[in-house]
Amino acid sequence: MARKFVCAFCVSLLFAIAAAGCGISGRFTKEEPLHNGILQDDNDFIVVGYSQIGSESDWRSANTQSFKETLTPQNGYYLLYEDAQQKQENQLKSVRNFILQEVDYIVLDPVVESGWDTVLAEAKDAGIPVIIVDRQVVVEDDSLYTCWVGSNFQKQGERAGEWLAAYLESQGRPDNVNIVTVQGTVGSTAQIGRTKGFRKVLSKHRGWKMLDSQSGEFTQAKGQEVMKYFLDTYDDIDVVVSENDNMTFGAVEAIEASGKTCGPDGEMIVISFDAVQTALQFMADGRINADFECNPLLGPLVRDIIERLQKGETVEKYQFVEEQYFDSSMDLEEILKNRVY
């Protein structure tokens, strides 16, 4: 049964470590029920330990904020947040810390898919439900986690490929194109799914040639570096598939710095993923052709799952968020007015 407390000693220690800047960054604010670093009336709160991958992208920041704005004391939650800084070993430590603190629930957004069996078994033995979000885990026993919540990354990749086929046809362009892919962190669920989905469509088009694929690690700087290499190596790139917006920003900068053009009126077609506000503005400015949404606002859905579990209800093992795509033919200025991330 889920516990409704965090021991005063553990929380005091956590607070001291956070203040010392040692890597634990729990969400302590003046509105929260703390007095001298000790959680007050903790039986009134559902305590959630949240291990986030990092803060490598605009999407990730919006994803983190969604949880921080949802799992609040005002809503009956006490959130312990840790940033893993892109390292699985940090996440393993975080989860074990949450187990020692006897949190009620653990929310894990895993850096990579493998290597979680042991620590998830420890959480299960401690009776703490684990909710996996965004990226997935591959374990021998899927009962080690309660459920997974996130995007259908393979479907995103397939939709991007289908969009490209339709776009080429609508433009009267031949179905013979040279493609490069700036991949995300290799081994992550988003990278695996988007790559697999796009290549599934690519395999149906004999004229599509994948010149190269390299990881941009989901960061703008690395995306720019990889795109510069592609430009220096290949003279005939027609399509750039970039597996997240921040890498796309870097790729566009590299293309423009080389003296070439991209977007609807440019030499290269640019396809991106995530669809954050800045990317849609890039599209409105004619620098990106299409962007496939990855909805980062998972906090409310996770809160709903926790509250159902609190009532003893069964939840579905896999839950997908609703998503859409955007391209340069749409009224992007109007869309941006109502965009929340």
Sheet-strand content, in percent, reads 15-25%
Structural classification: alpha/beta
- Mean of pLDDT: 89
Percentage of residues assigned to helices: 25-40%
In short:
The protein has 341 residues and is α/β, with parallel strands linked by helices. 39% of the residues lie in helices and 19% in strands. The strands form 3 sheets. A 6-stranded parallel sheet has the order 4-3-5-6-7-13, sandwiched between helices.
Describe the protein in words.
The chain has 341 residues and is an alpha/beta fold. Helices cover 39% and strands 19% of the residues. It contains 11 helices and 14 strands. A 6-stranded parallel β-sheet has the order 4-3-5-6-7-13, with helices on both faces. A 6-stranded mixed β-sheet has the order 9-8-10-11-12-14, sandwiched between helices. The chain has a two-stranded antiparallel ribbon with strand order 1-2. Strand 3, helix 2 and strand 4 form a beta-alpha-beta unit. Helix 2 (58-70) runs parallel beside helix 10 and helix 3 runs parallel beside helix 4. The longest helix is centred in the middle third of the chain and has 18 residues, at 153-170. It is elongated. Mean pLDDT is 89; it is low at 1-41.
Show the helix and strand layout:
Blueprint: H1 8-20, E1 34-35, E2 38-39, E3 46-52, H2 58-70, E4 77-83, H3 88-100, E5 105-108, H4 117-125, E6 130-133, E7 147-150, H5 153-170, E8 177-183, H6 189-202, E9 208-215, H7 220-233, E10 239-242, H8 245-257, E11 269-274, H9 277-284, E12 290-293, H10 299-310, E13 318-320, E14 325-327, H11 332-337
Parallel strand pairs: 3-4, 3-5, 5-6, 6-7, 7-13, 8-9, 8-10, 10-11, 11-12
Antiparallel strand pairs: 1-2, 12-14
Helix pairs in contact: 2-10, 3-4, 5-6, 7-8
